[in-house]
């Protein structure tokens, strides 16, 4: 390994690396080759306790600092992340298998954007003054929630660690973050960088482990808020556990998002949207537009040109900048995707391109295009989380809107058309939290990101996230004598 991928220790707590070898060992695998690149121990109850105790202690000191001071730390951390972008991207590529052409622009850089954005907001988080009759008034104080827990998925480990950490810390909370057991490495770097940037010890801590460690964090009475990125079944469990103790939650869960291409669309642009919305990160993106509804008149042209452009995908060594498609992040996910491709064929979808496992070390599969997919097919109903694009046909706007919304999910949705009024009418009708007109899958920090229906609760990024990491205290001030009926 040209890079040292083995972390100093498994956990980062109270400003330093910490180990407890009593925790179960898990191997970190480079998905492009199947090689073991690191080993980490899951957190024991003692480690979980140490992290929460540190976060609880640090929170008072952190919240007592001014927003300007907290913001300065976050912005410094953003600068360090950008300076180290290359090394952080290499590590992210080892952890996830995503090609360097992506990790250098969408992971540490996206994390840095979040740190910079929320760092900039921290100083202007204020309450309001509400004048009342007789000179009385109310003012509100925007206050931190306390100790927040972040739990991550394996597709965007650095980004998720920052998207949760940055708004939490800006508001004066502290965080204990548990990365996915599949990708434990990069969150440790985020913690290191925050402390180096001046965050007091204990403000941002990382503990490793599987679902059981996540569950023990969620139910701990010291924790006031839980933010999860993961699947819908896990989201339901975590939400229920948090609700039992009336904790705040943010849930960023899965999707089966529609992308609608009308026959007046700029077809090259729509195909780019379909590619970005299905094959980026080898299809392992929650907001992917995996049900591509194409109006009948342009269907064959769309399919032929999409298949042709898929032929230009560069599948290969993720460390090479020209590579555009890497492996699946894990063997488990590869098997899941292969299973869905088999189901697609079995249920009568037309395989236009791809569909095969690539026989070499690591977890490789071809980008896959299915046509003639119908609403009842498994590949049109379930989240695949892999590079499998399903094209469905439609005749009318009314029909496609009904079909697009006929899903339990509601994360994202997109429309490609040159008709301005139709574009706005369609997005207004989408049952989805994040919508796109003539593009797909962009997630700038300035814009709220999140889902409706089973896809989630709350929003990440933007000023909206502040509402999910703080609460308002109302203070009624009387300028008059207090009166009573007797
Ligand atoms: N909406 C979004 O922003 C995103 C959603 N996802 C979704 O995540 C899924 C893929 O990620 P996975 O890591 O396989 O998801 P997962 O749901 O299996 O695990 C997510 C995280 O939750 C933890 N966890 C599992 N059971 C838990 C429990 N009972 N209590 C607390 N924590 C628990 C896991 O250890 C992991 O860190 C996909 O379905 C995808 O759609 C992924 C990325 C972004």
UniProtKB/TrEMBL annotation:
GO terms for molecular function: betaine-aldehyde dehydrogenase (NAD+) activity. Residues 18-475 form the Aldehyde dehydrogenase domain. Its EC number is 1.2.1.8. Keywords: Metal-binding, NAD, Oxidation, Oxidoreductase, Potassium. InterPro entries: Ald_DH/histidinol_DH, Ald_DH_C, Ald_DH_CS_CYS, Ald_DH_CS_GLU, Ald_DH_N, Aldehyde_DH_dom, BADH. Belongs to the aldehyde dehydrogenase family. This is Betaine-aldehyde dehydrogenase.
């Amino acid at each position: 390994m040209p890079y040292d991928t083995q972390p100093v220790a498994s956990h980062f707590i109270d400003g330093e690396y910490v180990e407890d070898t009593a925790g179960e060992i898990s191997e970190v695998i480079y998905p492009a080759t199947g090689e073991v690149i690191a080993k980490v121990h899951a957190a024991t109850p003692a480690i979980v306790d140490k992290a929460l105790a540190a976060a609880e202690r640090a929170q008072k000191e952190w919240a007592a600092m001014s927003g300007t001071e907290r913001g300065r730390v976050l912005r410094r951390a953003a600068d360090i992340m950008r300076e180290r972008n290359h090394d952080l991207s290499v590590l992210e590529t080892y952890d996830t298998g995503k090609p360097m052409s992506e990790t250098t622009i969408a992971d540490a850089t996206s994390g840095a954007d979040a740190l910079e954005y929320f760092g900039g907001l921290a100083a202007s988080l204020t309450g309001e003054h509400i004048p009342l009759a007789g000179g009385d008034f109310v003012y509100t104080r925007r206050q931190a929630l306390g100790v927040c827990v972040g739990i991550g998925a394996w597709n965007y480990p650095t980004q998720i660690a920052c998207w949760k950490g940055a708004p939490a810390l800006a508001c004066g909370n502290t965080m204990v973050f548990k990365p996915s057991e599949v990708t434990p490495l990069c969150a440790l770097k985020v913690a290191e960088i925050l402390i180096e940037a001046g965050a007091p010890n204990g403000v941002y801590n990382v503990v490793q482990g599987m679902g059981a460690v996540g569950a023990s964090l969620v139910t701990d009475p010291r924790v006031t808020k839980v933010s999860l990125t993961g699947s819908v079944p896990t989201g339901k469990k975590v939400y229920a556990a948090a609700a039992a103790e009336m904790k705040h939650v943010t849930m960023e869960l899965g999707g089966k998002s529609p992308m609608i291409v009308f026959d007046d669309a700029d077809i090259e642009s729509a195909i780019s949207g379909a590619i970005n919305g299905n094959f980026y990160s080898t299809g392992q993106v929650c907001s992917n537009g995996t049900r591509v509804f194409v109006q009948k008149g342009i269907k064959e042209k769309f399919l032929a040109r999409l298949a042709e452009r898929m032929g230009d995908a560069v599948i290969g060594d993720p460390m090479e900048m020209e590579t555009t498609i890497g492996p699946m992040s894990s063997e488990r996910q590869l098997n899941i995707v292969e299973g869905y491709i088999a189901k697609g064929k079995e249920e009568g979808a037309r395989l236009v391109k791809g569909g095969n496992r690539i026989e070499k070390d690591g977890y490789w599969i071809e980008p896959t295009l299915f046509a003639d997919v119908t609403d009842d097919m498994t590949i049109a109903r379930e989240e695949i989380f892999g590079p499998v694009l399903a094209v469905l046909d439609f005749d009318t706007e009314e029909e496609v809107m009904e079909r697009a919304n006929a899903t339990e999910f509601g994360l994202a949705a997109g429309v490609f058309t040159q008709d301005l009024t139709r574009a706005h009418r369609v997005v207004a009708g989408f049952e989805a939290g994040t919508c796109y007109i003539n593009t797909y899958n962009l997630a700038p920090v300035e814009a709220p990101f999140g889902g409706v229906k089973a896809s989630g609760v709350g929003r990440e990024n933007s000023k909206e996230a502040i509402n999910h990491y703080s609460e308002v205290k109302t203070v009624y001030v009387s300028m008059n004598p207090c009166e009573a009926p007797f």
